[in-house]
Amino acid sequence: MRLSTLGVAAVLPVLSASLPAQGSLHMLLGFAGDNKNQAKSVPIAGLYDLDHDGKIDASSTELFAYLRKVFSVNGGRGGFIFDEQHVVERGDVSFYIADAGDGYVLLARDKNANGVIDDPEIKPFVQFGTAGTFGPNSIALHRVGSTTVLYTALNSDRRRQAGRVTGIYRTVDKNNNGVGSDTGETAKLLDQSDKLTFPGKSGMVTLANDNWERIRVVPRSGTIVAYNAGRAGVTLGTDQFCYFGFKETNGKLTSRGVFFNPSQLNGLPVNADLASGALEDLDITFQRNNQTQFFNGFPFCEIDANGFRLQPVVYFANAYSATRSFGSKNKAGKSLHGVVLRGFDANNDGDLQDKGEVTVFFNGSGNDLKGGAAGVVKSPSWVDPINGKVNQITGFVTGLAEGEGLVYLLLENGAADEVLELNDKNRNRVIETGEVRVIYVTPQPFPKVFSKQFGPFSLELHAIDRSLVVDPMPVGAVPFGAGCVGSNGLDSRVSISGGGPTIGNTKLRVEIKRAQPGLASFLFMGLSNKLFNGTIPLPIPLAGLGMGSCAQRVSAEFVFPTVNSTAGSAWLPLPLPRNTALQGVKLYFQWWTQDVRANAAQLITTNGVELTIR
User: Fold this and answer.
1) What is the domain extent for residue 533?
2) Does some domain include residue 549?
3) Domain total for the chain?
4) Which of 28, 120, 388, 503 allows an S-S link to 81, with CB 3.0 to 4.6 Å?
């Protein structure tokens, strides 16, 4: 049966169609375990805008189980996914996941290109302690040449197991066997026993506490940025509430200093605009036990590698809330909940301590705040699906993520968790009215990825560029074969979005991911993945055409050209007519895409996908 007579080929245009940059989000969850009958939540839920309408519909497949496998038993409490980072290595995207239940850092790769992590695709990479560790608290990745370095932060304040290590550790898989637990691969980088000192406001300050809540690495410079948290109190430690910066070579510290100090409560030099009063006082004060107590909590940090003039921009967010026990007001009575700071190292001296380098990016507090070089920053207004038009966040921030220039906040509002998208459309470095959207709300009854009784116990949010990952394959779509690795270190892949291959689905798209920005791609649609033009067995090696390990995996009844977006993705529509004669028809798809540095032919191929129309 010819496809053209059924109206399939006719709806595929021979026009370029690029997919705009979007972030794909992972919600990291606690009390995670066996999700059968919704007894517990999955460890990681995916939040992907599959139909490209600008929001995540939690009642649809746009909220899905990205990861189901759990390693932590944790006395029956299950996994606690505190952090996730990803890196391009070995021709794929690797996800490193901090499961604080029993001290694991896990390693996962979507090897079969189906858009989720299947059980065989994840394993323990390294473990700190044995059970009930409540750590690692945070992880960071840095590529040094072709080597991935993992930094792990462990907080003594949250230690639940006697003898569990604390501090900052460095791991390198030296023998390339896929784990970092072999002899000599994981070692302490620093901890409080080193008694590191830093110039303070009056004399030297000793690093006396391992309260590490966040760790990240500044791209290119390799500076390790680590937040040493602390507890509220009347008298506070001189080394707490500060982001420190470290550099190391082969596990030996080569430099250290204050990267950004958001607090005037410790003994360390404060950011220049905080000291002058140009930036709002970020410390909060409250009454407890008939005493005035103090606190600073900016434990969330994310880095946009090319945020401004192709240089890194750092975002910080606090965990204050008007409804929490310590409140959110500074000594001047200004509410500070929902504030996101933006840092840019303007003088390239390796820190964010200088005048004009840290400003208020988003003011979700509901009152005006001094924003540093940004001037007075007002709270924007936005529409909340639950509360209508608002100008301050409800609850408090439990997660911060950045992807493709967009900043995301995960808000804890009881059972109705929300995700805010902050999009600085006019590039003035301040979020204003019209630049805030609620893109996700947890509905009730709770979706199947969450515990039926308790709902999500959301711990953090992670964003990855949409162009790097395929969407979860719908029913009727099966990936096969493998693509060849391009000059970006990745194999390009076929992705299916807009729903499944069901008759009457007019939103179905066939996409390419991980391609080169702005270059041409060609979609092959065929009737077979066994024979090319009915006679030549598939796959066909393409080395003879100068294409290295690439292979042709589908027949080529139709070929459609497109142009890749600036993010390296493209798509073509495949709207399916409501024609029952199409049911059971199998179509096979593969992309060729330009890559001028990949091989002699300057072309590479993707894997294939079989679509069975339902």
Assistant:
1) 3-16+470-612
2) yes
3) 1
4) 28
**429 falls within a domain:** no
Three-state DSSP class for 257? strand
Distance of CA 296 to the CA centre of its chain: 25
- How far is Cα 503 from Cα 15, in angstroms, rounded to an integer? 23
Q: Which of 227, 185, 438, 250 is nearest to 317 (CA)?
A: 227
Three-class SS of 517-568: CCCEEEEEEECCCCEECCCEECCEECHHHCCCCCEECCCCCEEEEEECCCCC
Which is it for strands 23-29 and 458-465: parallel, antiparallel or unpaired? Answer: antiparallel
Q: Which pair of tokens denotes residue 595? A: 């890559």
Q: Is residue 590 part of a domain?
A: yes
d(CA 552, CA 481): 10
Cβ atoms of 503 and 579 within 8 Å: the answer is: yes
Residue 279 near residue 360, CB atoms below 8 Å: yes
Q: CA separation (Å) from 387 to 114, 364, 398, 582?
A: 37, 15, 19, 45
Biggest alpha carbon distance in the chain?
A: 87
- Could you identify the residue written with the tokens 């798809």? 589
Tell me the whole-structure pTM to 2 decimals: 0.94
pLDDT in tens, 21-44: 456 999 999 999 988 889 899 999
Nearest one of 197, 209, 345, 333 to 272, comparing CA atoms:
345
Q: Give dist(CA 323, CA 320) in Å, integer.
A: 9
Query: DSSP state, 271?
Result: P
Per-residue burial over 235-274, b if 16 or more Cβ lie within 10 Å, else e, is ebbbbbbbbbbbbbeeeeeeebbbbbbbbbbbbbbbbbbb
**Is 279 within the bounds of a domain?**
no
CB within 8 A of 269, min separation 6: which ones? 199, 200, 201, 258, 261, 353
In this structure, what DSSP letter does residue 471 have?
Answer: P
